[in-house]
Structure formats: C-alpha cells, structure tokens
Amino acid sequence: MVEKIKYLGVILLSHYLLYPFYLDAFSNSLQQLLIFGSLLIYAIINKEIFSTLFKGLREKKMYFTIAMLLFSIILLASFFIPIIYQTMDFSYLSSQIRHVFYLLMYIILLAMIRIKKPAQNLKNEFMKLFTLATRNYVVFTMVLLAVGPFREFWLNFIHETPRRLELLEMPIYFARIGWAGYSGFSVTFFCTIAVLFSIYLILHTYEHQKKISIKEVINMFFALIGNAFYGRSGLLVSLILIIIGAAYFVFINRKIKYIVYLVSAIVIIFMLLTIIKEFNSTLASWYSWMMQPFVSLIESGRIETSSTDALWEMWFIPDDSTILFGDGFYTSPLNGRYYMGTDVGFLRPLLFFGSTFMTTIYIVPATLSIGIASKNRLNKFFAFLSLITLFIFEIKAEVVFLLIPILIILFIGEFSSREDKENTYKNNRSYKTIVTEGIAR
Fold it and tell me: Which class for 31: exposed (0-12), middle (13-18), buried (19 or more C-beta within 10 A)?
C-alpha cells in the first residue's frame, strides 16, 4: 500500500510534466523555480541512479552519441546564426532550450519510475504513464465542458493569456480546453503520440500474453476523442495510425474479430456525438468543425478545410540563398509571428538556417528511432509509425522538438531495461552457482 501511494506521486508528476499549468495567483517564474528546482535537488540527491540509467546505453552507444552530437550542433547553430547574420533573433534557441529543460525533467521522471518499479520495462512504463495522463487530461476536458461554472472557475484559477481566452470563446474552439488551459496543436500532437503508445502497448501485451489490454484500448479511445477536441490534424493522423496498427495486428496474429470490435466502437462514438450535437448549438458548431475534413472527403474525394486552404498558401519555395544558408530569422521582426508567415514545420528551420541544419534536425529523431528499432519486430514497427507521425505533422506545423525528448526517453528506457535484465540474469546465475557448489560440498 505504501509503495502504491509513493508511485501515485510519480503518476501525478507525470501528469503535470506532460501537461503543465501555472496558477494565476503567483508568479510563473516563482512556480517554475519551486517545482523544477525541487526536481533538480531530487536528481542531485539520487545522482547514482542516473549513472545506472545511462550505463545501459552501451549496447547502442553509437546511435545515442550521434543523436546527441547532432542535437548539440543544432543548439550551437541556433545561438551563432543570429549573431553571424546580425538578426539577433534568438527565439528559435529559446524554444529549443525549453524543450531541453523538459527533457531533463522527463529523465528525472524516468529515474523515479526506475526507483519505484525497478523490475519493469522503463520504456513501457513511461508509455503507460503518458497514455494515462492523456486519458485523464481528456476526462478533465469533458468535466470542464459539462460543468460551465467549473470551467469559468478553472480559467480564472490558472494563468492564461487574453488571446487564448478569446479563442476559447469561439464556438469551434470551445472544446480546446484542459487543465493546462487553451489546448491547441501541441496537445493534439501529444494525443496522437498517446494513440501511438496505446497501439504499441496493445500489440506488446498480445504478443507476450495473448490477450488484449482493455485499459490501453480505453486510453486509445480517450486520446482519439482528445484529438477531436484539440485538433483535426491529430484526429486524421490518429485514425491512420489505428488503421495501420490494425492491419499489422491482423497480418501477424490472424485475428479479424478484434478489428471488427474496434471499428464498431469508433462508429458508435461518432454516432453518439452526432446525436448529442442536436441538443446543443455550441456543440453543433464544434461538431461541424470536427467533421469538415471527413465531409469534404466524402463529397469531393479530397480532404479540404479552411485550415488546409490556409496551409497550402503558406507553402512556397524560398530563393536559393535562403535554401542554402537561411535568413537567420525564426520570428518576424515586424509582428513577432513566425518568419514569412508560415506555419509549415519543414519551412521554419529552413528559413532560419538553411537546408544543411534543417536536414540535421530530422536526422536526430531518425537516428533515435533506428536505435529503438533494434532487432525487435514490434520496435521496428513502432519506429516506423513514429517517423510517419512526424512527417505528417511537420506538413502542418513544427513538432520535431516535441518528439525528440520523448524519443530520447524511450531510447534510454529501452536499453536501461535491457541492462537490468542482464544484471538480473547474471545475479541469478551467480546465486544458482553458489547454491549448487554449497550442495555439492
């Protein structure tokens, strides 16, 4: 019981680190200092566990070293490019530093998981915490949507910008709310990652136990609903991942009945939403917004929405000099928005520091994914889906620096767990040898 209570603290911490928020009554800087400072103190006190974590990387040291070296080069380039070009635009660097900071927090979280559950697969445990946090985030959204007074209380309780509060008043965006406040593209990306993790855990459980993980099926459906709340792009990508995952399951296990159950459940969810929206005008506006790409696909054979129309206008071919060397701007000096008004993930780093460094950025997650793939068929499938997810999302906006810290954690978790298994095997073997020798004497 005591251990369960202690692990509850790890669960709550994972919820906060993945979907952070700040109270409106206190300074954000003070809250960051207290929360993250406490975690750093914890890391210093338990520093020996971190050396153990990284010891397991010896098996795939080359992949990890290459990825970290390239990641460091990107950080250095983000600092020196604005100086060399005399633009002094360090917004790209500040964005990366924030993700590096959260990477450190994720590593501390991974260390806590290892301390509390040393016998478990760290990669899988992190995935389980991720899907659980996402499910609870979506449940919290449902509560906020269902209880209007609580929604108003919560928005006054946490720190939120005036612009985001304005967006939440729009009928099509009223569902983009969670305990972190306004929940947009980054949250729908995390919901998609949660769907990906649930698919992996379902396949992993069936591969080892020959049964379906009902818990992860439920988590996957909640993440899918979250995508319907926070962003249509995530909903489309999640459905693609589920289709590919289902095809993999049928191909490997020859079990079609589970796919019938899955499709039936998805259809029922959409039917329920279709019925419920008839009783609420605000919900009807959101429903029309959510279903727009599907209606467009049925009517015209193409996925067209107001967002995609605006997105295609943001695609353009820069001049040769910009393609080769970039312009040194990540945000516009005129209005503070993204440079040249583009949301396209592939274009933002290209405009900032050219094709060479842009390519380097995408080599990092590719290298980590190849390392995670190892010789395990399911890991290879997971790495394949991860890169598909990254590629599709980058067409819409930049998510590569959201994904890299997660892949680093999965990489560390995968090979630290293997180190644990090897040590356990060696210890058990030594113990058996001692016992055998004792009996012989």
Answer: middle
